[in-house]
Amino acid sequence: MMRGKDDVERLYKLLGGKDQRKEFDKQFKNKNSNFKIAIVVDMWLTGFDVPFLDTMYIDKPIQKHSLIQTISRVNRQFEGKEKGLVVDYIGLKSAMNKALAQYGKTDETNFEDVNASVIEVKNQLDLLTRLFHKFDSAPYLSGKVVA
Fold first, then answer.
1. Could you state, in order of their start, the residue ranges of all structural domains in the chain?
2. What is the rounded distance in angstroms from the CA atom of residue 112 to the CA atom of residue 2?
3. Using CB atoms within 10 A of its CB, is residue 62 exposed (0-12), middle (13-18) or buried (19+)?
């Protein structure tokens, strides 16, 4: 979804022009579209509203208001959606606690129910197992490089 002026020309052109990016935006916001996964750097993290979006994976440092806006992408009400899930790959808990304490009405030290979080992660893992039932994950889980 993002590109930079230093990207290799072939990769730079893959995203297309402004009209094509608008079409990506439109398709991602369409709940009936098959466009379900987007990897983004900055665009769509804040100010991008997709009420049915339920899961976000974060692997970059984000703080304060930007963090609150980012995690809010999965916190929209939508029929059939109970809650959103933020998967934190880099350890945002401390930054999230501080942001919630600053911009919300919560304690800076702890805001989540760990047991409920573990249950939700296990549910997501079960879903992934069912989705990828034909995928041989043995090489990945063994930690060995497969050529």
1. 45-110
2. 32
3. buried
